[in-house]
């Protein structure tokens, strides 16, 4: 049986960042990934990195391409009632966010892991985590049609929603919290210049819309859709028409249309599984919590979990200090719930829930307040650029 110090299930941002940070502390790990490398590197997901994520990528030596190709955004636009109002992150918090796709960050981390001699087994789905309450946990997995085992000192379940790590834990040891929203996001990716230099989040009577981007020549747009909607119902023209209808005139006039590179629907939900530690099995990222994409927090939480876990494992393995590991679950959950709250608030503020005109007037009143009040803007901005995470686990 192959052995490693930390067995990691999942080659997404959480698993890759954990493996990367552990190797910098001299700790060996093996990543098991169900999909092929091509699949993982082509997957289109999140696009916004918080300041703390950007700093960590830089400090840990994987920020070079991000700094060359990423776009620093000092603010964001809020559209409502045919108005366009800007929230200035720099002025309110002294921080910014970076537009750099999760796809690109994943590629950078895979390349860096492999160049440093790290081991990633692609097309190797984990089946279960065994003996995690002992000091010799094992991951059973499949490789080339064969059933195999990876012996570990610690196991990290970074296997996303529906992962096997959480499923390996008896139900009575887990408490879950969930909110399912009654709509989804229909997203399009197209090689057209973005409508604005910065993102536009739009509240509209027809439903939410978001103008985002991946580069000065590649745009990512989303519109709120019904849960039972289907990509086949949407031609490119129908998407562009609906997007324009939901934007203030000045922005709608600036939309450049083009053929889709990708179109998909994502449902929106909030989910937390507690705790994040079961003996020597630790959960990180989407494996333990899901946020609706409205606050752009999913990817950033995966990174902060990985940071906390790498720091705690290094303190235990290298310095024989176990207290950070003991506090891992509580430390992460505090930050996770802050992001769950912010994403929930932002989702409620921006989406159409029903035909109730009272609800819509309330949303407009809150957005109007946000546009006038520095205090309200500071609160929004400090959550959007990301609450801090640091080694003291304060
Ligand atoms: P990931 O990225 O899902 O990675 C988990 C990895 O585990 C693998 N896996 C297994 N490997 C081995 N054995 C098994 N049994 C396995 N089961 C699963 C999977 O193949 C995968 O490679 O989780 P991680 O690392 O926690 O990172 C979290 C982020 O990816 C996620 O929070 C965000 O991408 C969420 N998200 C979005 N967030 C945003 O902030 N903005 C967005 O626009 C946005 N769009 C999205 C999204 C998530 C989506 N999902 C999960 C389907 C769009 C989609 C479609
Ligand atoms: C994206 O660019 O995919 C994106 C940006 C901001 C969000 C969600 C998704 O809140």
Short précis:
The chain has 394 residues and is an alpha+beta fold.
What do you see in this structure?
This protein has 394 residues and is an alpha+beta fold. It has a domain at 2-70 and 100-179 and 269-350: FAD/NAD(P)-binding domain. Helix content is 37%, strand content 29%. The protein is built from 13 helices and 19 strands. Strands 1, 2, 8, 9, 10, 11, 17 and 18 form an eight-stranded mixed beta sheet that branches. Strands 6-5-13-14-15-12-16-19 form an eight-stranded mixed beta sheet, with helices on both faces. A hairpin with a 6-residue loop joins strand 13 (200-202) and strand 14 (209-215). The radius of gyration is 21 Å and the shape is globular. The protein starts with a strand and ends in a 10-residue tail after the last helix. 44% of the residues are buried. The model has no long low-confidence stretch (mean pLDDT 97). The protein binds 8-demethyl-8-dimethylamino-flavin-adenine-dinucleotide and P-hydroxybenzoic acid. Residues 9-15, 32-35, 40, 45-46, 102, 125-126, 158-161, 163-164, 266, 285-287, 293, 296-299, 302 line the site of 8-demethyl-8-dimethylamino-flavin-adenine-dinucleotide.
What is the CATH architecture annotation of the domain at 2-70 and 100-179 and 269-350? 3-Layer(bba) Sandwich
Percent in helix: 25-40%
Overall 3D shape: globular
Biggest beta sheet attributes: 8 strands, mixed
Q: Which spans of ≥5 residues are poorly predicted at pLDDT below 50?
A: none
Summarize the helices and strands and which ones pair or pack.
Elements: E1 2-9, H1 13-24, E2 29-32, H2 37-42, E3 48-49, H3 51-59, H4 64-69, E4 71-73, E5 75-80, E6 83-88, H5 89-93, E7 97-99, H6 102-115, E8 119-121, E9 126-130, E10 138-143, E11 146-157, H7 164-167, E12 175-190, E13 200-202, E14 209-215, E15 218-225, H8 236-245, H9 249-252, E16 260-274, E17 277-278, E18 281-283, E19 289-290, H10 298-319, H11 323-350, H12 357-372, H13 374-384
Parallel strand pairs: 1-2, 1-11, 2-8, 5-13, 11-18
Antiparallel strand pairs: 3-7, 4-7, 5-6, 9-10, 10-11, 12-15, 12-16, 13-14, 14-15, 16-19, 17-18
Helix pairs in contact: 1-6, 1-10, 10-11, 12-13
Bound molecules: 8-demethyl-8-dimethylamino-flavin-adenine-dinucleotide and P-hydroxybenzoic acid.
The site of P-hydroxybenzoic acid (PHB) has 8 residues, from loops.
